Amino acid sequence: MISCVAHEVNNPLQALHNSLHLLLNRPLDADKQRRYLVMAQAEVDRLIGLVQRLLDIHRPIPEAMRPTHLHRILKGVVPLIEQQLRDNNVYVMYDMHPGLPMTMGVPSLLKQVYLNLLLNAVEAMPNGGILTIRTYTVDAQSQQQLLSNATHSAHHPGYTLASDRTTWAVVEVRDTGSGIPAEELSKIFEPFYSTRNSSDGRGLGLAICYGIVEKHNGLLTVESTVGHGTNFRTFLPVAK
After folding, report:
1. For 128-162, what is each residue's pLDDT tens digit?
2. pLDDT tens digits, residue range 58-108?
3. In terms of domains, do 43 and 96 share one?
């Protein structure tokens, strides 16, 4: 973790250092001075964004949990990605449990989780595909069976069931993209790890999502097979 943070922070610091060095040691005209100042400001903004994302991973939940309709959150998130769906020629299919029970949660944080998962799914299908959103419930035994039957999956190795009497509300976000290789799948929830070339703190999204779900006493898992797509699941305990 320290190595990853040092690497991510060092890049903008080096760019910032070079810009300031040129401003202080070279006779530059006004246009070049402004250009280097703009570059320096951009790198400072990049550092601020990076630190903010790091804080978000372990930030305490800012709102009191309350009974939350996951369907309501999902239906509010999908319209936010309509442009990306059109641009990537992605079709959305729904398989929603008609009587999905409520969960105890913070709607704004859960919205962040599902928005991130949906955007990841769309980006995994640049040439078009099907994005399936499915909801259902499982008991603790069925949840454990799902985890043990997944041959190409990843979740926190230290996870233990909250209770053998817990019922879980499950949301699946499945894409028909190219899938994630097994050697990358085990690292998918690590901070700064990304299957895409990225900058500006990208690669923190899934780590933040995992932290949010964990704070809700839930579990975020991923299953993927190369050539067949990827399926993210959130397990959240239903409200008593």
Report:
1. 999 999 999 988 777 777 766 665 555 554 454 45
2. 665 666 788 999 999 999 999 999 999 999 999 999 999 999 999 999 898
3. no
pTM: 0.71
* 119 CB-contact burial (10 Å; exposed 0-12 / middle 13-18 / buried 19+): middle
The verdict on 184 and 205 lying in the same domain is: yes
DSSP conformation class of 100: P
The torsion angle over the Cα atoms of residues 22, 28, 29 and 32, rounded to 10 degrees, is -20
Same domain, 75 and 136: yes
CA-based nearest residue to 215, from 5, 56, 52 = 56
As a whole number of angstroms, the distance between CA 163 and CA 168 comes to 11
Residue pair 151/179 in contact (Cβ under 8 Å)? The answer is no
Which of 174, 167, 155, 165 shows the shortest CA–CA distance to 213?
155
Query: How many structural domains are present in the chain?
Result: 2
Of 57, 84, 100, the last residue of a domain is 57
